[in-house]
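Much of the work behind modern protein science is quiet bookkeeping, done one molecule at a time. The fold becomes a row of whole numbers, each drawn from a learned catalogue of backbone shapes. The protein below has been through that process, and both of its lines are reproduced in full.
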Amino acid sequence: MKKSVVVVGSLNMDIAVAVARLPAEGETLQGGGLAEAPGGKGANQAAAIGKLQTPVCLIGKVGADRNGDALLQSLAESGVDTGAVLTSSGQPTGIALVTVDREGRNHIVVVPGANGELSSDDIDSRIGMLEQCEIVVLQLEVPLETVAYTLSKAKALGKTTVLNPAPAVRLDDELLRHVDFLIPNERELRTIAGLDDVGGPSIERAARLFAEKGVGALIVTMGEKGCYYADRSTVKAYPALQVNAVDTTAAGDSFIGGFVAGYLASRDADAAIREAQIAAAITVTRHGAQSSLPTRREVESFRRSLNEYEQFRSRRGEDEA
């Protein structure tokens, strides 16, 4: 059986509006366009993994409506096994309201809908999926008790666990001790670790804090500032890849998809982070969520170009010396 991934998380229809700049509190702005696109952190991360030709199954819940049908179709087209997605009899498919400015920055408000019904019983009904996979990936757009239950089940089964703590809330020690890779962005890290600022020393302190609670490693994504990896013995900064960003909506989901696909293939966190950075760099050059996620071929092409550029710089440095 091929090594595979199970993502447990949300499915949302994204309703996005373009604006010149993000509004201030109480301010009304005129939008430049409105678009609907499949999204949700669980669905986005599953799609990111599937597009990288890594076997992946999604466990989640949608409503019995056209948005749910559209989400399932989009996931199938991205190579995701949707057979474990349940349908709610009483709630609509989740909605995310997204505002994106000219610099690619965004504000997002999520209406959970059917996502809020995903329960521990639903996880038990799909336990065979967890038993067969290698890595289990979760976020916080489904009930926190379901996330905690899934993490404990996954660790009891000996699986590698990845948690993206978004949207950020303070997490208890019992949940954290079941997390192998905790992957927040810098804003999320401030919330879950109680930090006033985020940088190398504070990330190192946070990593020690989380290690004491049982977390294997902390990976902090910081947009144009790159990312940090930290565990009990190592802190490493990764500079960002320089691209022309137009929309950061799915950057974090693409990073996690790239990391999980890379880690499943190599079991090497450093190699997986480099894969994640390439995937995220491609994503931010495009508009949308799932529509912006790169394919395996695109990631490999970007990597070749990056390697050629680094070789050119190395040769140039030798010539100047």
